[in-house]
Amino acid sequence: MHGCRYSAIVLLVCYCACQFAAYSISAQNKSVIDSLKQVLTTAQGEARIDVLNRLCWEYRTSDQNRAIEYGLQALGLAEQLQSKRGMASALNNLGIVYRRRGNHPQALDYHLKALKISEEIKDSNDIGKALNRIGLVYQGQGNFAAALEYFQRSRDIYEKIRIPQGIANAMTNIGEIYSRQGSYSLALEYLVKSQAIHQEIEDLDGVAETSLEIGLVYGKQGNVLLALDYFQKALRTYEQIGNRSGIAQTLSAIGAAHLQRGNLKQAEEFAMRSYKYAQEIGEIEWIKQSSKTLAQVFAAKKNFRKALEYELTYSRLKDSTTGEESVRKIADLEAMLASEKRQAQIEILTKENQIQQIIRNSLALGLLLVFIIAYILFRSNHQQKKANQLLSQQNEEILRQQKLLEEQASEIELANTELQEANLNLKRQQQVLEEQTREIELANSELLELNINLERKQAMLEEQSRQIEQANNELQMRNAQLKDINDQMNEFLGIAAHDLKNPLTSIVMTTSAIRRYYDRMTKEEILENLRNLESTAERMRMIIHNLLEINKIETGNLHIASEPVLPGTVAEKLVEEWKPKAAAKDITLVFDNRAPNKFFIGDASIFYQILENLLSNAIKYSPHGKTVWVRILASEVSGISGISQQGVQEYIRVEVQDEGPGLSAEDKAKLFEKFARLSAQPTGGEHSTGLGLSIVKKLVEAMNGRVWCESKLGKGATFIVEMHAASV
Questions:
Q1: Helices then strands, each counted (H, E), the chain
Q2: Which of 6, 11, 427, 535 has its CA 20 to 30 A from that of 257?
Q3: What does the alpha-carbon distance between residue 697 and residue 492 come to, in Å, rounded to a whole number?
């Protein structure tokens, strides 16, 4: 409850701070606009066009209707005064406003007209702006290939004229395209470089935009906390400079990030604030995006009525900006632009053809005159006297025509010279373009190498992270195992302490009795007491032995030899050693070796310990006068069902069978567990720690063998150890 109250208080404080910041921003922005309006009252001519364009620019993120009003006034006055630069600026500003309103065809029309005027007056800066904004229109339409082409052209122009802000703006947009295409490494590279330039030139709007875009990239990569950090930086900067459009966009991004984390309350709050901001300034894109987030939030809250309401808003706005009609209009504008360029080329070719036709006509006329002169000279032999005056006139005409021909020849020669010079210029330009192409290819190669290095480093970091995580998991697992072992050892020590208490008490009492009454005891009584001491000490030895043995196994300090082991030899020796103990309970031991030559690879002393545990248990739980069998068998089939057979495999089985009380289903389920207490009890008052069979199982499995028990309640039990037989 206290945590919820604290969160609510923090949210309230943040909201009040944002409202105060927004109020301060509005006041600051209003001051700039008021100053411009004051200047507008007296501005004339080009100065008035500039003020109107600046007012359009200032209103673009706060009041788009006012922005359009001032933009149209600037455009009309610029057309009236034939101010190409003023017309290009007004068209670009209007294109920006219409793009923000989601009217992409109208925006593209304005930007294309601005680009044409800027190319006519050869204003590289305005050309770069127009190309960049055309790219933004295509980006809004989802045509990323066309958008990337225009952004790269814009960047190339700004790099040539060395305008850092233009370079940074283009790089930001290129980074955003790569982000939308899923190339996050490339996106971050461009965005980080762009942000560095914006910071260097102290362009806060650019710094905020790159922070927002970097946050969006991290959000797409799943790093939502880092994304939120960048979004908060962007929001603070946008609030500082009064960019309400940027505030709306950033609030929408923060809401989507909280939705991604499952924080529905924060997601709804930020998305709703973005929605209201965007509605106030007419920003269609952020109304659309915040509507999408709100639809998802209310769907998650099961408020399907509101979810449907915002989903319909999102769908309507999406269709209005990316629908078929919008795409068709843009395609028509592109076709008109291409047609206009082709028409200009046709006009140039037509003029050139007309000039060539005039030259050809002049040459034909000259030849015709020469032919006429020749004809007149021929006729002059017959009419020389009559035609002297005419001949004189003709000579003058010939001279005039010759002079005309000479002038035409000079013009042709001059035209040829200009043509040669133009060809030389074209060759030089081609060489420059080839050099630039080589430089671009070299830069692309370096960029590709840099990307490969970055991806390699990222892969190395991911591998190191994976190894660290794996090491942590192994460490946690090892700690858990150690804790389990420690708990088990503590449990065993408790049991051992409890089990040792009675034998120690018995030893103390027996030795005290012998010491005090030694002179009154017979020799047989003293020997009987000593036998009891020996039996009690043996019982304590077995408890301590089991403790050390289980500790060795659990801590991995058990060393197993790898040598040939003849199970028949080991079992026969064990049976001979245990016959006196069995005879004490009138139990008969029967040894049956049906595989005398079979052996396996393992540790003979450990195998002896395994059989000794099983044989001692059989004697311990067998009633007086019964029989215990120890058999050695060989088989080509495993005694456990489900063991897959690969090739020819032979097994050695050692069976220890008794005629004791047998085992119930409950006993068999916990037979090989540590400290297991079974329903059957030793028949001669022997002691059991509950560790013997657990040790047997671990020792057998340590030598890659298997152990199990076959028993029915009341019909005795057979313990079976199965090992893989070795070949000679």
A1: 22, 7
A2: 6
A3: 18
How many angstroms separate the Cα of 425 from the Cα of each of 120, 428, 429, 435?
A: 20, 5, 6, 15
Sheet holding 651-657, edge to edge: 588-593, 627-635, 651-657, 717-724, 706-711
Buried residues in 514-542 as b, exposed as e (16+ CB within 10 A): eeeeeeeeeeeeeeebeeebeebeebbeb
Token look-up 């610029």 returns 78
The first and second tokens of residue 674, run together, are 């540590």
pLDDT at 329 over 70: no
Q: Are 455 and 185 in contact (CB under 8 A)?
A: yes
Inter-residue contact 608 to 647 (CB < 8 Å): no
Q: Is 581 exposed, middle or buried (0-12, 13-18, 19+ CB in 10 A)?
A: middle
What whole-number distance in Å separates Cα of residue 234 and Cα of residue 229? Answer: 9
CA 164 to chain centre: 32
Q: At what angle do helices 304-322 and 324-383 cross, to 10 degrees?
A: 0
Measured CA to CA, the distance from residue 294 to residue 340 in angstroms comes to: 45
Cα–Cα distance, 541 to 209 (Å, whole number): 79
| Domains defined along the chain, listed by start | 35-129 (1.25.40.10), 163-242 (1.25.40.10), 243-322 (1.25.40.10), 559-724 (3.30.565.10)
Strand partners for 717: 711
DSSP per-residue codes, 410-445: HHHHHHHHHHHHHHHHHHHHHHHHHHHHHHHHHHHH
pLDDT digits (tens, 9 = 90+) for 535-557: 567 556 655 665 566 666 666 66
* Interatomic CA distance for residues 540 and 687, integer angstroms: 10
Check pLDDT > 50 for residue 450: yes
- Is pLDDT at 299 greater than 70 in this prediction? yes
Reading the block at residue 165, the tokens are 């802000």
Task: Return all residues near 662 (Cβ < 8 A) that are at least 6 apart.
Answer: 680, 711, 712, 713, 714, 715, 716, 717
The angle at the Cα of 711, spanning 706 to 715, to the nearest 5 degrees, equals 150
Q: What average pLDDT does the segment 441-457 reach? A: 82
Which are the contacts of 75, defined by CB distance < 8 A and separation ≥ 6? 87, 90, 91, 94
CA atoms within 13 Å, Cβ hemisphere of 207? 17
Of residues 412 and 327, more confidence is placed in 412
What is the C-alpha separation between 181 and 542, in angstroms, rounded? 73
